[in-house]
Amino acid sequence: MKRFITTVVLCVAMMVSATGWGAQEPGPLQVFVLVGQSNMQGKGRLEHLDKLIADEKTAAELKHLKKGDAWTEFDEVWIKYWDAKGNLKAGYGSPGIGPELGFGRVIGAELKNQVLIIKVAWGGQSLARSFRPPSSGPSEQELRAIVDKTNEKNKQEGKPEVTLEQIKQGYGPRYRDLIKEVKTVLADIKAVFPEYDESKGYKLAGMVWFQGFNDVINTEFRAEYHAHMVNFIKDVRKDLGVADLPFVIGELGMAGVDPPKRYAFKHFEVRKAQKDAANLPEFKGTAAYVETAPIMDAWKATGDKWYDGGYHYGGSAAVYYRMGEAFGKAMLKLLPE
To answer: Can you identify the CATH homologous superfamily of domain 26-132+172-334?
Structure first.
C-alpha cells in the first residue's frame, strides 16, 4: 500500500512538472524607469534599423523587430515616454530608437510579470545642474551668495536682478521632473497601461541612468560627477520609497574605448566617476556599471556609415539596441530572486 501511495505521489509530481500545474502565477507589475539625456532619448535611426534587418549579416539578430512593413509590437512590455504610450516597439526614441527597445526585449523575455517602462529623458542636461540631486545642495546660504554675486554682475552689465527662487530653480529641475513623472504614472497606472492587473499591484523594480555628455565638457562638472552620482542614487531611492532600488549606470562611451587623445582624459574622468559610484561597497548587489564603448567600437569596425554626425553613437540603431540589451542583462542580475 505504501509503495502504491508513493508511486501515485511521484506520478502527480511529474504531471505538475510537465503541465505547469502549480506553477507560480505572475506577480506584481514590474516597473522600470529609464532616465537620462539625449542618448537615453535615443538617436538610433529607423532607416538604419531597416537596413540592418535587410542585411543578411545582421538579419538573424534583428528581424524579429519587424513584421512585414510594420514594427513588431511586443505585448509583454508596455512603455510610456512623455505623451507616447503603448506596447513596446521601435519608434520610442528621438527620432528612432533608444536603449528601451533592447532593454525591454531582454526584461520581457525573462520575467513572467507584466512590465512597464517609464522613460524620462531630455536633451542637453547635466548632472551637476539639471539633474542635480537635493543632497548635493547648494544650501540656502550658498544660494543667497549666488544671488548676490549674480546681481552684482547684472548691475554692471545693465541686466535685471534675479530672485532667490529663480536661482534655486536652476539646480535640479530635471531631478524634480523625474520624481514627479514617476509618481504621477504610478498613481494611475491604468491611465497609461489599460491592461494593468490592479489586483496584483506593482513593484518599482529598477532604474537605468544613461547620461554624461553635458558634464564631460565642463571641468567643474567632471570633478563633481562622482559625488552627484552617489547622491542621485540615494536621493532617488529615498524620494521614490525603494531603499535598495536596483540601479544600472550606462557608461558614457560614444567616443569608444580609446577616445582621441586631445580630449580622452575628459571621458575617462566621467567614466571613472560613473564606475566608482556603481562599485561603492554600500551599493554592492544593488548597482551596476555597463560599458558601452566596446559596443560602439564593434559597430565602427563594420565600416557602416554614420547617421548622426559625430554624436549620439553615430545614430546607429545596432548600437542603441545592443546597449539596451546590455542594460537589461545587468538589471536582471540585480533583481531579487
So the answer is: SGNH hydrolase (3.40.50.1110)
pLDDT per residue rounded down to tens, the chain (337 residues): 444 444 434 443 444 334 333 344 688 999 999 999 999 999 999 999 999 999 999 999 999 999 999 999 999 999 999 999 999 999 999 989 999 999 999 999 999 999 999 999 999 999 999 999 999 998 778 888 888 898 999 989 999 999 988 888 889 999 999 999 999 999 999 999 999 999 999 999 999 999 999 999 999 999 999 999 999 999 999 999 999 999 999 999 999 999 999 999 999 999 999 999 999 999 999 999 999 999 999 999 999 999 998 899 999 999 999 999 999 999 999 999 8
- Which sequence spans correspond to the domains of the chain? 26-132+172-334, 134-170
Q: What pTM was computed for the model?
A: 0.90
As a whole number of angstroms, the distance between CA 223 and CA 227 comes to 9
Distance CA 88, CA 270 (A): 31
Q: Does residue 39 sit in helix, strand or coil?
A: helix
C-beta atoms surrounding 241 within 10 Å: 10
